[in-house]
Amino acid sequence: MTLETKKSVFVELGKFLGQFSEKESVKKSDVLYNDIFFDDFENLIHLSQSHNGWYTPEQVYFALNSWAEALTAENIDKWLSQYKSEFAQNEGKEKTVALILAGNIPLVGFHDFLSVLITGNKALVKTSSNDQHLLPFLAKYLIAVDENLKDKITFVEGKLENFDAVIATGSNNTARYFEYYFKDKPSIVRKNRNSVAVLNGKESKEELEDLGEDIFRYFGLGCRNVSKLFVPKGYSFDGFFEAIFKYQDVIHYEKYANNYDYNKAVFLMSNFKLLDNGFLTIKEDSSYASPISSVFYEFYENIEDLQSRLETDSEQIQCIVSNDLIENSITFGETQKPQLWDYADNVDTITFLLTTK
Fold first, then answer.
1. Angstrom distance (rounded) from CA 199 to CA 248
2. What tens digit of pLDDT does each residue of 293-343 get?
3. Helix (H/G/I), strand (E/B), else coil: 299
4. For residues 60 and 67, what is the distance between their CA atoms, to the nearest angstrom?
5. Distances (CA, A) of 253 to 75, 124, 204, 270, 325
6. Dihedral pair phi/psi, residue 13, rounded to 5°
7. What is the mean pLDDT of residues 65-71?
8. Residue 50: which region, alpha, beta or left (left: phi > 0; alpha: psi -120 to 50)?
9. CA-CA distances (angstroms) from residue 148 to 6, 96, 142, 232, 236?
10. Bridge partners, 16 (sequence order)
11. If residue 173 lies in a helix (H) or strand (E), which one and from where to where?
12. Please, is 51 exposed, middle or buried when counting C-beta atoms within 10 Å of its C-beta (0-12, 13-18, 19+)?
C-alpha cells in the first residue's frame, strides 16, 4: 500500500464516522459500505454503555465526531508533510508494533493505531477490557475499504508475542511493569498525566463555561481533562461556579454521582475545607491528580514563578489551559479536541515509528 492509499482509507473512515451524531445520525449515499456497517455501528454506540458504564452515547458520539473532524485529507496531509524524508528512508521496512491500549475514554488508543498503520507497519493490538468493541469494529471497516489491511491488523487477548516495538499506555504502576517487561524492545511507555488551567480572574463567563467542557467531558476521566486550577491570591470562585452550572446534569449519571458522594464524604471526614456546588467539589491541594467529581486548586503569586514550576513538573502534565497566560497553553474548551499532530506526552509517535530499527 502506498502512503497515498493509506491516507485515502482513513479519509473514508472519517467520512463514515462523520455520519453519526447524538442529535441525529444520517446515512449518506456517498459513504462506502454503509449497507454493511452503518446500522451495526449505530447499535454498537448505544450498546457501549452496557460494556462500560462511562461510555454514554453522548461521550461516544463526541469521540467519533472529534475523529471525523480530524480524519480529513487536509489534516492528514498537514500532519505527515513534515516527515517526507523519514517516510522515504523507511520505505519497505515493515515492523510489527504491539499496542497496549488504555480504556479510560472511548477510542483513546486510536491515534497510536492510526500512526502504526499510516507508517506502513503492522498493528498487534491488545485492547483494554474497558474498550473492547469500538476499535475492532472500525478495523473491520478499514479492511472492507482496503483488504490489504487485513494482514496489517491483529487483535490479541493473551500474551503479546513476535513484535519489534511497543507502545504501551497505563498507570504509573503498570508503566514500571511495562518498562521492565519491554526493556529489550524499542518502546514508548505512557504514564499518568493530568491537565491544568491557569486563571487570572479576568476570564469571561464564556471562557469559564468552556473550561467546564475541559473539566466534565468524559466525566473527567481523560489525561487531557483539567483536574487542577491555578488561581491568583484572593481569587473568588463565584464566577467559576456560576459559569459551570450548565454542566449540572452530570450528577444524574449514577457512576459519577456515586463518585461525587464517596469522594465528598472522604474529604469531609478528613476535615478538608471544600467548596461545593452539588455536583463538583473543589479543594486546595498541591497534587495534580484529583478524583472524579473533584478539582484541586492552588494559589499563585507570580505568573513567571508558576511558569517555571509547570516546566519543572512537565512530566506530570498533559495540557495547560489559559488565556495566553502560559506559553504554549491551549484555549479554553479545546483540550478534548487534539489535532493529529498533538502527541500524547509530547512524544512524536510518527518519528518513533519511522526511525526505530
1. 22
2. 999 999 999 999 999 999 999 999 999 999 999 999 999 999 999 999 999
3. strand
4. 11
5. 35, 35, 28, 26, 34
6. -60, -40
7. 98
8. alpha
9. 10, 15, 10, 56, 58
10. none
11. helix 172-181
12. middle
Contacts of 273 (CB under 8 A, 6+ apart): 283, 284
Dump the DSSP string for 107-172: TTTHHHHHHHHHTT-EEEEE--TTS-SHHHHHHHHHHHH-GGGGGTEEE-SS---S-SEEEEE--H
Question: CA angle, corner 227, sides to 196 and 207, nearest 5?
Answer: 60
Burial 93-108 (b: 16+ CB within 10 A, else e): eebbbbbbbbbbbbbb
Q: Tens of pLDDT along 158-190?
A: 899 999 999 999 888 888 889 888 999 999 999
What single string gives the DSSP state of each residue in 247-293?
A: GGGGGGSHHHHHHHHHHHHHHHHTT--EEE-SS-EEEE-S-S-PPTT
109 in Cβ contact with 102 (< 8 Å): yes
The tens digit of pLDDT for each residue in 201-233 reads: 999 999 999 999 999 999 999 999 999 999 999
Average of per-residue pLDDT across 122-150: 97
C-alpha cell belonging to residue 290: 484529583
- The pLDDT, as a whole number, for residue 171 is 87
Residue whose C-alpha cell reads 479554553 in the numeric block: 332
Q: How far apart are CA 311 and CA 84, in angstroms?
A: 31
Q: How far apart are CA 263 and CA 354, in angstroms?
A: 44
- For 318, which DSSP code? E
For residue 322, the one-letter residue type is S
Residue 314, helix vs strand vs coil:
helix
Do the Cβ atoms of 118 and 143 come closer than 8 Å? no
**Distance of alpha carbon 245 from alpha carbon 8, whole angstroms:** 42
